[in-house]
Amino acid sequence: MVGVASPTAAFPSLETALKHHFGYDQFRPGQRSVIEAVLKNQDALVIMPTGGGKSLCYQLPALLKIGVMVVISPLIALMQDQVDSLTDNGVAATCLNSSLDFATIRQREADLLAGKIKLLYVSPERLMSPGFFGLLGQLIQTVGVSGFAIDEAHCVSEWGHDFRPEYRQMSVLREKFPQIGVMGLTATATERVRVDIAQQLRLRDPLVQVSSFNRPNLFYEVRPKNRDGYQELRQQVKQHQGSGIIYCLSRKRVDELAQRLREDGESVLPYHAGLADEVRRENQTRFIRDDVRLMVATVAFGMGINKPDVRFVIHYDIPRNIEGYYQESGRAGRDGEPAHCTLYLAYGDVATADYLISQKPDEAEQRIARQQLRQMVDYAETTVCRRRVQLSYFGETLSEHLDGLCHQCDNCTNPPPVEDWTVEAQKFLSCVARCQERFGMAHIIDVLRGSKKQKILDLRHDQLSTHGIGKDRSVEEWRLLGRSLLHQRLVDETTDGYPVLKLNAASWQVLRKQISVEVAVPKDFTPGPAEASTLEDTPEVGQLLTVLKALRKKLADQQSVPPYVVFPESALRQMAQTRPQTMEAFGQVSGVGSRKLVQYGEVFTDAIRQFCADYGLESDPGAARGRLRPARERRQTVGDTHRQTLELHRQGLSVEEVAARRGLKATTVASHLEQLIRQGETVDVDQLVSADRQRAIVDVLAEMEHGSLTEMRDRLGPTFSYEDIRLVRAAWQMEQQP
Q1: Which one, 101, 155, 207, 306, has least CB within 10 Å?
Q2: Among residues 49, 54, 62, 50, which one has the least CA distance to residue 34?
């Protein structure tokens, strides 16, 4: 029996089903069209970036179709995370893998055949094991199979960044069960990889959904790794809030870095293939459950990580290719909240990576890997928008910003000077044409600079009209131009390991003087800004968010699941901003479905009501509509509790004395005074903070006005309180207003 769709049997629309099962009000871009295709039993190839919502594309159809959706996933840990999340949402899901004992496997198989399960996760090895196709046959004849979903489908392609030979066998599904729809899903795939995936899986007229690879919530930067690189890394880790991953090239570097960070007081664990399986599993579980803040890892810490609230990813060594870097850095901010991605560049690390490539037994693999490494170095050295370079690699253009800047990378926020190099670009592209589009950048530069190398003479390229016309520019300047032309897609390059430059339509527009070429010229390096704190709408938002995170951690530990399984951080932030105190208002929070409303509604609204009572706050009026308004649009009124604080302050009492008189915490009183300042009430800051301390705080504010409180306090030192900084900042910012 093949599963058929009946989405309207219980729900009037797909959006209604989405809200009921998963708590979301609307689909993300691309999801709806895929879900509609799967419901019609059509094959599909889904390319969505990390955090883009791939899983929902098969999870919702599984709930709306008859039978079991079989999901092939490469890692046991990833399967278990998915099952935990679904189970917590009230969805019947299970997995079969080698970690289970015989009795457990038999019980789960019985549940499947009894129609108690809607999603089954298996590994490729389990799929191909003796007897599994017999189980599938039984399922088809009894409860039905609604479809096959092959996750991390780039593993099918030898052109993908994580090719796995066992994935080549997935085509057997089409051979044995031709009547059942198949979908492949992955976060990254170039055009070449997409074609290969469709062929290897034998997809029939599939819907191909390629969502934008742009992750606008991620800030990208590259920093030079100097001799004191560790100290800069250490300082950066201190400045960042939340969980982070630090990637290294070797196991030895992972162990050394994790040890140094641990000795410096950081909560950190290592992860690499040299550790015992049980140690890796334990370390990953502790990181996912927020028992430790940092994970230092090799790329072995990859597809198994399903933690949406990673706030920063640092590559302490250069990655081997752009596709891998996109995947690894993309493990930051999967919840859609702001996150930071830093790459440290040291040319000694490039040499190490090249040495590792030389150990590959196949010369063709070496050739392709070296080209990919050079592309990675070009990315690190580029002076153009880093997001533009990443998107160009996947055949996408940065289109939503008319100025061509993403405003979310170091090159855009701290742009180098731009110069018109149209004439030089015409020389470069003309030389590519004269050389009949058969050579790479190094050869083109040699011709332009009038080289007399034997290769130039043998090819008679010393007789070309472009030979020597670029002597006035250095090799590095021509390389800068060549990289810029590639990144701006004004010239193309082959990707088969022999990087040959090819003219495209835009190249001819440059040659015909129809478009000009601007090149960003490097200047002395200045690190990009740390991301602005996302918790600073008001002090209460940050304080309530801390309370809600602690509650989430407690509930997660009770159930032995990661905290994000209870609620994603984005949902907690919405709760902190809107402060829903009734079940109806709580149900409007994005991410709160029917199951989570019943399971967690009372305990979270109780916590929010208690917090509001402690601080004299009311629920935000935006909560009733389930819509957040920016803090700048929410004008807070001064209530009675704030007036009482103001009266006592005007009697000359200190923050601590007001707190004692009113039975409140000092942080609450300081919060009242800060809001009063911002509302234009007269608050005597001189009475609260000494002149010397005010001057010190204002100096830091002038230097890092948009920094977080934590960053400011780190700069000022532990003798300065957060309350002092808040009060002085509020007064200073009010003074700056016109």
Answers
A1: 101
A2: 54
Give buried/exposed letters for 622-640 (b at 16+ CB in 10 A, else e): bbeebebeeeeeeeeebee
Phi, psi angle pair for 219, to nearest 5°? -100, 125
Instruction: Check residue 631 and report its DSSP letter.
Output: G
Cβ contact 163:155 at 8 Å: yes
pLDDT tens, 514-561?
988 988 776 542 323 333 333 344 567 777 888 898 899 889 888 888
246 beta partners: 296, 314
Residues 149, 53 share a domain: yes
Beta bridge partners of 312: 244, 340
Rounded to whole angstroms, how far apart are CA atoms 509 and 615?
64
CATH for 433: 1.10.10.10
* β partners of residue 208: 45
* Cα–Cα distance list, 356 to 325, 343, 575 (Å): 17, 19, 48
Q: Classify 267 in phi/psi space as left (phi over 0), alpha (psi -120 to 50) or beta.
A: beta
Q: Are 372 and 357 in contact (CB under 8 A)?
A: no
Q: How many residues does the chain have?
A: 738
Residue 8 lies in a domain: no
Helices (H), 148-214: 172-176, 191-201
The pLDDT tens digits for 539-552 are 677 778 888 988 99
C-beta of residue 457 within 8 angstroms of C-beta of residue 467: no
| Residue 361: how many other CB atoms lie within 10 Å | 6
Computed over its alpha carbons, how large is the radius of gyration of the chain? 29
The domain of 732 spans 640-736
Which of 487, 520, 553 delimits the end of a domain? 520
Q: How much of the chain, in percent, has pLDDT values that exceed 90?
A: 35
Distance in angstroms (rounded) separating the CA atoms of residues 147 and 183 = 8
The rounded distance, in Å, linking the Cα atoms of 577 and 557 is 25
Question: In 199-280, where do the E strands start and end?
Answer: 207-210, 218-224, 243-247, 268-271
DSSP character at residue 5: B
User: Within a 10 A sphere around the Cβ of 546, how many other Cβ atoms?
Assistant: 13
In whole angstroms, give the CA distance from residue 44 to residue 61: 13
Q: How far apart are CA 158 and CA 483, in angstroms?
A: 27
Global pTM? 0.60
Say yes or no: 621 and 660 in one domain: no
pLDDT in tens, 167-218: 778 888 999 999 999 999 998 788 888 898 999 999 999 999 998 888 889 9
Distance CA 415, CA 407 (A): 10
CA-CA distance, 55 to 228, in Å (whole number)?
42
Strand partners, 221: 342
**Whether residue 400 is found in the same domain as residue 451:** no
Antiparallel, parallel or unpaired: β 501-502 and 339-345:
unpaired
CATH number at residue 374: 3.40.50.300
Note whether residue 253 is domain-resident.
yes
DSSP-assigned states of every residue in 387-419: HHHHHHHTT----S-TTS--SSBHHHHSPPPEE
Clarify whether residues 181 and 32 are in a common domain: yes
| Chain centre distance of CA 604 | 27
Q: How far is it, in rounded angstroms, from Cα 488 to Cα 507? A: 10
The whole-chain average pLDDT of the chain stands at 84
283 and 333 co-located in one domain: yes
442 & 589 share domain? no
Q: Is the residue at 477 inside a domain?
A: yes
Instruction: Quote the number of domains for the chain.
Output: 5
- At 317, the amino acid letter reads D
Q: What is the CATH number of the domain that holds 622?
A: 1.10.150.80
